[in-house]
């Protein structure tokens, strides 16, 4: 989650905090995405040169100053990451901040406060602008910087009917784990995060005898009893998803804006015989 930041020496700070569901999970990777553009679109035909984006972490849980001298700057900040950027290839840029975010996270929820970042650019001057969130403007949310944090997945309690195929009886209806890679699908050029996800699917059959309490609705129970009388010989009960969960996706839209969306029913969590 990002916030309208404080300022330090006239520069807007980016401020982030972990979502509640991420607390307590080890951080594997952290990447800051920022938008870099020429200030005047009429001046895009310029001689190429390299710029450098610098990201500093500003320390202190209760940061309450807006100016520090050059001599004190190092005591308030630490280098978090940098990136060389070509003037001919501007747009969205990503900077690896894994180590800095891991150090911030290791400080503990009671003492870490928000993660405050200062983004500076060598060579930008009046020509190039790094898009930052400014509280006094109505900035386009699709161009705001954001932090992508990859954590280890939480362990989940397995419900009684959420039978995994690895522990199922032969032919039993079960949930088969399946990781879908967006790179394999050729979608990694427009999907930013995640790189893939555990979609899972259901396999097995439902032809075994079932007691009445295992049916999820009365209609299925009636249809199954009718089938056993050879009245519906072509009908076979199917092993199918009973419960799904959603997932978050960050991607580029058709106008090269970055969108974050929560997509429902993307992950099969439980399979059964409806």
Automatic annotation (TrEMBL):
One of its GO terms (molecular function) is cytokine activity. Residues 157-274 form the TGF-beta family profile domain. Gene3D superfamilies: 2.60.120.970, Cystine-knot cytokines (2.10.90.10). Keywords: Disulfide bond, Glycoprotein, Growth factor, Secreted, Signal. InterPro entries: Cystine-knot_cytokine, TGF-b_C, TGF-beta-rel, TGFb_CS. GO terms for cellular component: extracellular space. SMART domains: TGFB. It is found in: Secreted. Coiled coil: none annotated. Signal peptide: none annotated. It comes from the Eukaryota. Belongs to the TGF-beta family. This is Inhibin beta chain. The gene is LOC113213232.
């Amino acid at each position: 989650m990002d916030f309208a930041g404080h300022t330090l020496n006239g520069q807007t700070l980016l401020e982030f905090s972990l979502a509640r569901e991420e607390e307590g999970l080890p951080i594997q990777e952290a990447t800051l995405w920022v938008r870099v553009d020429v200030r005047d679109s009429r001046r895009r035909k310029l001689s190429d040169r390299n710029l450098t984006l610098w990201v500093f972490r500003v320390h202190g849980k209760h940061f309450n100053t807006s100016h520090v001298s050059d001599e004190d700057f190092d005591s308030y900040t630490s280098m978090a990451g940098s990136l060389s950027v070509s003037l001919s290839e501007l747009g969205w840029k990503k900077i690896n901040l894994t180590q800095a975010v891991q150090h911030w996270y290791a400080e503990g929820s009671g003492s870490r406060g928000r993660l405050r970042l200062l983004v500076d650019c060598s060579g930008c001057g009046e020509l190039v602008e790094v898009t930052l969130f400014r509280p006094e403007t109505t900035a386009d949310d699709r161009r705001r910087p954001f932090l992508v944090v990859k954590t280890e997945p939480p362990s989940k309690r397995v419900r009684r009917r959420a039978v995994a195929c690895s522990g199922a009886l032969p032919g039993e209806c079960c949930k088969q784990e399946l990781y879908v890679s967006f790179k394999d699908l050729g979608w990694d050029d427009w999907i930013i995060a995640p790189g893939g996800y555990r979609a899972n699917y259901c396999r097995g059959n439902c032809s075994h005898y079932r007691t009445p309490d295992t049916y999820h609705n009365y209609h299925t129970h009636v249809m199954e009893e009718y089938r056993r009388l050879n009245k519906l010989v072509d009908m076979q009960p199917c092993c199918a998803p009973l419960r799904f969960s959603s997932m978050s996706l960050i991607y580029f839209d058709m106008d090269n804006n970055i969108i974050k969306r929560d997509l429902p029913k993307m992950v099969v969590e439980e399979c059964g015989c409806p």
